[in-house]
Amino acid sequence: MDSHLPLLVIVIISSFVVGSISIVPVAPGLSYSFYSSNCPKLESIVTNHLKQVFKKDITQSAGLLRLHFHDCFVQGCDGSVLLDGSASGPSEQNAPPNLSLRKEAFNIINDLRALVQKECGQVVSCADLTALAARDSVILAGGPKYNVPLGRRDSLNFASRNVTLANLPAPSSNTTTILNSLSTKRLDPTDVVALSGAHTIGRGHCTSFTSRLYPKQDGTMDSNFAKNLKVTCPTTNTDNTTNLDVRTPNVFDNKYYVDLVNRQGLFTSDQDLFTDSRTKGIVTSFANNQSLFYEKFVIAMLKMGQLGVLTGKQGEIRANCSARNANKVDLWSVVEEGALQLLSQF
Ligand code: HEM
């Protein structure tokens, strides 16, 4: 009987892992072992570097998580948000919702790019590095552990200002607007509430929420919370920031939902999730049950992380995450062409 115990443990553990992942289908062209032969150390390089970065400043985790969200929602998870503007016009980075992305987040992705390229050559995309950095940000800030499918390719171009604006909802949006916007990406109300839980870490600038304070205070906001926010933001355009989660701002936990239940959500898009009858019950269930939040967050992240991905021969593997390659021949296609030439000899 005892001799079966290890096998039983393995079966239980693997069915749990596979069970939670199998709920979200893997997009064609992506896989959980994409770089296992050509860059086996990828994940440890990323994790080790981020551990060092976060040791100095854990708040950088929030910047990286948001960067992945802004990448995926506009034109798919294709590294388009990383591209600097060019002669063809201002980039996604210059569109209003992206102006508050942290400069450090872009630098960290470029540092990861250099470290990974040194070890493996030009084989890992900037879009995958962004997805891995977001995943590690969640884990290293104390959140759930999960694997991400890899194999995304980098875009050759970025989206226009209007497309960027149309795909990233404003913090002044109510739940109807948020649900409608995210349903166009096949994200359901549970996904919406779970993804919003990313606001358990990070900061917001006064301009993102002062419309709730002036000229009239939002009636759904706790008055003490409002009083403190007015100290941080004495006028509508003060250039200060405050934490998104008033309880545990640097820990990836379920306290964001406890904030909402106590009417201490920072943005309208957060607090209205507890007012709207379609999402109120989900908020309450996450406030009461952190494991449930973690489970639904991972599912929603896996869905978000596979939006509109480029795979196979689409796009390219950028040598520099901030700029498209000078010529379109990248290592992946060189390797592939080499393999085709070899095959044609048989
Ligand atoms: C549902 C609609 C969402 C809206 C309207 C929204 C809006 C915002 C706004 C306005 C900020 C603060 C920007 C600033 O003033 O500096 C912010 C910060 C942040 N958002 Fe969201 N967000 C949404 C969804 C998400 C999602 C899906 C994620 C990730 C999965 C996310 C992750 C973050 C993080 C981590 C921060 C803190 C960034 C930092 O500290 O640098 N947000 N969000």
Automatic annotation (TrEMBL):
Disulfide bonds join 39-120, 72-77, 126-321, 206-233. The chain crosses the membrane at residues 7-35. This is Peroxidase. GO terms for cellular component: extracellular region; plant-type cell wall. Ca(2+) 1 binds at residues 71, 74, 76, 78, 80, 92. Ca(2+) 2 binds at residues 200, 245, 248, 253. InterPro entries: Haem_peroxidase, Haem_peroxidase_sf, Peroxidase_pln, Peroxidases_AS, Peroxidases_heam-ligand_BS, Secretory_peroxidase. The gene is LOC110778909. The lineage of its organism: Eukaryota, Viridiplantae, Streptophyta, Embryophyta, Tracheophyta. CDD domains: secretory_peroxidase (cd00693).
